[in-house]
Design brief:
Elements: H1 2-12, E1 23-28, E2 32-33, E3 40-46, E4 53-56, E5 70-74, E6 77-78, E7 85-87, E8 94-97, E9 102-108, E10 119-129, E11 132-143, E12 162-166, H2 170-195, H3 233-238, H4 246-265, E13 267-274, E14 279-281, E15 288-292, H5 306-316, H6 330-339, H7 341-344, H8 348-356
Parallel strand pairs: 2-11, 12-13, 13-15
Antiparallel strand pairs: 1-3, 3-9, 4-8, 5-6, 5-10, 7-14, 10-11, 14-15
The structure holds zinc ion.
Length: 358
């Protein structure tokens, strides 16, 4: 799996698009940070265009900035994002950056990236707005390693799919008891469907059993196996229209395999009690899912269900698929498939919608 992920991540790094949008600039106040010091990055957006630019508030520089919007490298190695990844059910408020206006905030890199290694770091912001990416200057800095990543606690292996809940009310617990098994089924079914696709030799399509010699006059028609390389319609809708891109298919299939395995062999912990969100996780804290008040307003079934959100969150962990949130909602997820399928296969909502569409 490592090789495919590496291949994809190099494709995914911020593309150079000369689009009209904010100028993004970063600055650090030191070029050396001792292990007890916080590397605060000033992230600044300036609107040098003649028109106002609308930016989702969650992408605006602020204390509440939780986005994997920096490329942080120590040597050639990319530091992992360790901040919150959310599930939204609405696009959120927009900030109107007027022509000529600048907004900046000092963001603590310590809470967003794994900085455990001593070394020369290069830092660049890459802000994705309206599916276009806006890159900043690159800043180089020496950072002494620090223990800013809580080691992932050992996750118990379980015999049957098991969840544990923390701080949940009785009604919340009742909802989770219904939604969790549904999520497991969505993921298992998604994997089964992908597993059955022939990718031109490396994974064979399981042929249906030949019909028994017919006794009645009408012999049953054997089900048609898909043509080699043909992917299911739901896969084409939510991941990639081009069946020949078997690398993407293999990538998604491996990811659903790990998600499916995690659901059936790991203890999944749900934490209730947060508000102003649907759900979130920290991608390095495997199988811990925070479900907030809005989660419990979602329907049990359909494309944006509680079970779907659980699949979305499960796909975020580095221990499973390590997905990101490049686009939220059905429209944006489908637009990603058309424009950047290599990003669609890394986007959590696409996993949710694919698994809910079979
Ligand atoms: Zn998410």
């Amino acid at each position: 799996m490592g090789t495919i992920k590496w291949f994809l991540s190099t494709l995914l790094i911020c593309s150079n698009v000369s689009a009209k949008g904010p100028d993004v600039h970063i600055a650090l106040d030191q070029d050396y940070y001792a292990s007890a010091e916080y590397p605060l990055v000033e992230l600044k957006y300036t609107n040098n265009t003649k028109r106002p630019i609308e930016i989702p508030e969650k992408l605006m520089p602020s204390e509440e900035f939780w986005n994997d919007a920096f490329i942080v490298k120590v040597g050639d190695k990319r530091s992992k994002y360790i901040g919150m990844l959310f599930a939204y059910n609405s696009p959120g408020k927009l900030y109107r950056l007027e022509s000529g206006e600048s907004v900046s905030y000092e963001i603590d890199l310590n809470k967003l990236y794994d900085l455990r290694e001593d070394g020369n770091y290069s830092i660049q912001a890459c802000v994705i707005l309206d599916r276009k990416s806006f890159k900043s200057n690159i800043v180089e800095v020496f950072i002494e390693g620090r223990d800013n990543v809580e080691e992932v606690q050992e996750v118990k292996d379980v015999v049957v799919s098991t969840m544990r809940t923390y701080g949940c009310s009785r009604t919340e617990l009742a909802a989770l008891k219904l939604a969790f098994p549904k999520a497991i089924k969505l993921a298992a079914n998604a994997y089964d469907i992908l597993e059955a696709v022939d990718t031109g030799g490396n994974i064979a399509y399981k042929k249906p059993k030949p019909p028994k010699p017919p006794k009645p006059p009408k012999p049953p028609k054997p089900p048609k196996p898909p043509k080699p390389g043909e992917t299911p319609k739901s896969y084409q809708t939510w991941f990639c229209k081009d069946s020949k891109k078997s690398q993407l298919l293999n990538y998604v299939r491996e990811n659903f395999q790990t998600i499916d395995q995690a659901f059936s062999t790991k203890l999944v912990k749900f934490y209730c009690g947060c508000s102003n969100a649907v759900a979130f996780v920290f991608p390095h804290k495997a199988y811990q899912i925070y479900v907030c008040d809005d989660f419990f307003d979602l329907p049990m079934n359909g494309m944006d269900s509680q079970a779907g959100v659980i699949v979305h969150e499960m796909s975020h962990f580095y221990a499973t698929a390590g997905t990101n949130d490049y686009a939220y909602g059905q429209k944006a997820a489908q637009a990603l498939v058309k424009r950047r399928p290599e990003m669609a296969v890394r986007n959590a909502d696409n996993y949710m919608y694919f698994s809910s569409d079979n």
